[in-house]
Amino acid sequence: QIQLVESGGELVQAGGSLRLSCTASGGTFRTYAMGWFRQAPGKERELVAAISSNLGTYYADSVKGRFSLPRDNAKNTVYLQMNMLKPEDTAVYYCAAAERVGVRVLRDEYDYWGQGTQVTVSS
Measured between alpha carbons, how far is 120 from 123 in angstroms, rounded to an integer? Predict the structure, then answer.
């Protein structure tokens, strides 16, 4: 079983950048598909970006060209690099892990979740 801890969320101005980190422990990190989700107040949790164990990626249309998802298996960490942030990016961001092959895009495909980190983008 894997445990996930996110960090890096904070208040940032529109147009700025943030890098979120998700560090895993207790499992074989390199074999997991990883994803970053976000949930804004009053909205459902949505997938932002995902990466497979063999580095295939998926990005939601709303973040394409602005966000990237590097993973460092040696550090058991996946990042969410967020550039050109917008107020609509404001949400709690969650890291998730799936014990499945390939890029996973459905929330129910993920087996483990972090506690979330708040990102607030001011206009």
Answer: 10
Q: Are 46 and 37 spatial neighbours (Cβ–Cβ below 8 Å)?
A: yes
| pLDDT digit string, tens, across residues 4-15 | 999 999 999 999
- Contacts by residues 96-101 (CB-CB < 8 Å, ≥ 24 positions apart): 96/4, 96/34, 96/35, 96/36, 96/37, 97/2, 97/4, 97/24, 97/27, 97/32, 97/33, 97/34, 97/35, 98/32, 98/33, 98/34, 98/35, 99/31, 99/32, 99/33, 100/33, 101/33, 101/52, 101/53
Q: What is the pLDDT of residue 11?
A: 98
Burial of 113: CB neighbours in 10 Å, binned 0-12, 13-18, 19+? middle
